[in-house]
Amino acid sequence: MTIRILTTGGTFDKKYNEIDGNLVFRETHLHDMLKIGRCTLDVRISRIMMIDSLDMSPEDRLIIADKCSETVESRIVITHGTDTMVETARVLAERVSDKTVVLTGAMIPYSFGNSDGMFNLGSVISFVQLLPHGIYIVMNGEHFPWDNVRKNKELGRFERILR
C-alpha cells in the first residue's frame, strides 16, 4: 500500500523567521518527521501549496480536491492548517468519493520542538491505512468524520459535535 501525503502548509510546516519575527513557510518538515519516526511504509509526499489555511481561497480548496482525484493512490493524507480544515474537508466530501482522505495538522509548529505534529502525523499514518473510503480529520489521537467535528479554540483541540 502506498500512502500519498499532500502538503498545503498550515502550522504544521511553519518556521520562525529570526529576522522579522514572523512565522513563515520554507519547506515541509515531513521528510524529517517520517525519518525520525522510522516510518518504513511507502509514503510519497507532494507539495500542493504552502499557505496559512486562513489565507486559503475557495479555488485553493478545489485545487486540493482535484489533486486528490488525480492521484493514483487511494489512501491520502493532507497536512492542513487547523483553522479551516473542516471547510476543506467539506469540499473534498463533495468531490472525492472513492478514496480514503484524512486531514491533519498541528496547533504548534513542528520546528518549535514541543509540537503535537509528530503525534498527529503518526496517528494519521495509522488511521489512513484502516479507515474505509471517506473524508476524515485526525487530531489529538482521534479520527472524526468530516461532518461531525469542530475545532474548539478555547481548549485547543478538535472534538465531536454533540447532536
Please, could you describe this protein's structure?
With 163 residues, the protein is α/β, with parallel strands linked by helices. The chain has a single domain (2-159), classed as Rossmann fold (3-Layer(aba) Sandwich). It contains four helices and ten strands; from the N terminus they run E-E-E-H-E-H-E-H-E-H-E-E-E-E. The protein has a six-stranded mixed β-sheet with strand order 4-1-5-6-7-8, with helices on both faces. The protein has a two-stranded antiparallel ribbon with strand order 2-3. The chain starts with a strand and ends with a strand.
Summary of the model, kept short:
With 163 residues, this protein is α/β, with parallel strands linked by helices.
Number of H- or I-type helical stretches:
4
Rg to the nearest angstrom?
15 Å
Give me the secondary-structure category.
Answer: alpha/beta
- Count of domains: 1
Strand content: 25-35%
**Secondary-structure element pattern, one letter each:** EEEHEHEHEHEEEE
* Shape designation: globular
Largest sheet: 6 strands, mixed
How far apart the termini lie comes to 36 Å
Mean pLDDT, to the nearest integer, reads: 89
CATH architecture: 3-Layer(aba) Sandwich
Q: Regarding CATH, which class?
A: Alpha Beta
Strand order of the largest sheet: 4-1-5-6-7-8
CATH superfamily: L-asparaginase, N-terminal domain
